Amino acid sequence: MFELAEMAVIEEIKREVARRRTFAIISHPDAGKTTLTEKLLLYSGAIELAGAVKARKNQRHATSDWLEMEQSRGISITSTALQFDYQGCRFNLLDTPGHQDFSEDTYRTLMAVDSAVMVLDGAKGIEPQTKKLFDVCRMRHIPILIFINKMDQPGRPPLDLLDEIEKVLGMGAVPKNWPIGEGPDFQGVYDLEQKQVLRFQRTVRGQQRAPVWVGEIDDPQFAEEIGGPAYRQLCEDVALLAGAGFSFDRERFLKGEVAPVYFGSAIHNFGVEPFLAGLKELAPPPGARMSSHGLVAPGIEAFSGFIFKIQANMDRRHRDRMAFLRVCSGRFEKDMLVYHSRLDRKVRMTRPHRLFGRERETIEEAFAGDVVGLVNPGLFAIGDTLCSAAPLKYDGIPRFHPECFGILINRNLSKNKQFQKGLQQLEEEGVMQVLFSPDGARREPILAVVGNLQFDVVQARLQYEYDVETSVERLPYTSARWISGDADAIDKMIRLRWEGMHLQDRDGQMVALFSTERECAFHQKHYPEIEFKELK
Ligand code: G4P
């Protein structure tokens, strides 16, 4: 009897895992990530009318200095996790920040997804940020689906775009559909597998789903309606593609070597549904993940997951920190007792949340592939593993080494308590690392960050979220090493005073800053007794 009940539970978990699709959208700013996100929500039925996400984006901008900075630079700093259903599948869409300086944050998010959607602007093709984000995906062999957007505007020939993907990214590009008409004459897509024409009609401001006519390419009515030039071009292209011998290899797609390509216009809702259907069909459900105890399959009874992101003050009304857990196996339940590997103790999962943009609601359960928001009373750090059965640990989330350094000065000394709290919480989020002068020689903390813009983020967030005004005095160093090993040799290196600076991190470990990699390499060579680590 008991065994039967247990089998039924496992069957349910397997069913739930099989219908999960957890993905992120990566793109260069302005390619249309926000618009596509919104249209995926429209087509899944999660929202009734397009415009809501954008409206909220604007509303947020109006109320926050920090987010105004986000707007003025055309980047997205806030991350959200959206969940929606489409034709029996449950999608988890994780937002990735869109600026090059946030590669570390982006990397963490990409550790938590099973596939990625790359949005390209049909006129611009591969842009610098697309390439950077792609490199991160490649490091993890994440399967990628491509949506070539803005086909309603004059752009580049589709074959050129495919060629650029192959040349610049070194990834095979296999078209799943083909645009009908160009620029202002863009009318829909031709499904190359089903050999079907999908001709869309525009709606007012693209708020509602676009009515679609589905038919055969040799239907005379279709030929007449789309007009001679567009029809001739389509027939020529289709013949050319048949001869080009594109074929989609699922195994290579799953390794991130080949990407299916879809064309469309997110703003007009053209080609959005075929893309969503493609995502459902091709994006893989959660797979097995490597842990300290070997591969963990997602469809087992035991729950496990890891924290990939921490964010403070997501909502000023709540004033709390949210830790984001990616469930990797089994079923997560509200109030369950789980083992916290790093703290080596059990913790109760009270108040788990699901997030929809900035809205949050308490959830009762979640399955592998889902993202759960945990209100974090300082219990969780990025990379922590939580599990219900035998203690295990998922591979850590790598950190990028800092390349920019600056002294952070608190301009308002009466706010020292808030200043310290803000520093600690933002460091916990992984926004920056905080270093200190040994023996308190210098009172102000030194920030170590991956990119310059991160200084502005720290300052703006301290101001907006903790009400502390600060300034940053930039330091001329470009690289840091965590130092350990022979104490006499370390002492000698410090006494002989190189051009750099020696500091300590929060745990008291020594950190040396160097102006150039060459200078760092010189010291490494001269002090073989000392260990120089790029990361903590
Ligand atoms: P992002 O999140 O990748 O940064 O891009 P976002 O969706 O915000 O889109 C950037 C701009 O491109 C927006 O215009 C948006 O309306 C436009 N856009 C998105 N998809 C399409 C498309 O398929 N065709 C065309 N022609 N434009 C598209 P904006 O002027 O910056 O904003 P808004 O005033 O339209 O809101």
UniProtKB/TrEMBL annotation:
Transmembrane segments: none annotated. It is found in: Cytoplasm. Pfam families: EF-G_D2, GTP_EFTU, RF3_C. InterPro entries: EF-G-like_DII (IPR053905), EFG_III/V (IPR035647), G_TR_CS (IPR031157), P-loop_NTPase (IPR027417), PrfC (IPR004548), RF3_C (IPR032090), RF3_dom_3_sf (IPR038467), RF3_GTP-bd (IPR041732). Gene3D superfamilies: P-loop containing nucleotide triphosphate hydrolases, Peptide chain release factor 3, domain III, Translation factors. It comes from the Bacteria. One of its GO terms (molecular function) is translation release factor activity, codon nonspecific. Residues 18-287 form the Tr-type G domain. One of its GO terms (cellular component) is cytosol. GTP binds at residues 27-34, 95-99, 149-152. Keywords: Cytoplasm, GTP-binding, Nucleotide-binding, Protein biosynthesis. GO terms for biological process: regulation of translational termination. The keyword Transferase does not apply. Its main location: cytoplasm. The keyword Protein biosynthesis applies. Increases the formation of ribosomal termination complexes and stimulates activities of RF-1 and RF-2. It binds guanine nucleotides and has strong preference for UGA stop codons. It may interact directly with the ribosome. The stimulation of RF-1 and RF-2 is significantly reduced by GTP and GDP, but not by GMP. Belongs to the TRAFAC class translation factor GTPase superfamily. Classic translation factor GTPase family. PrfC subfamily. HAMAP family: Rel_fac_3. This is Peptide chain release factor 3.
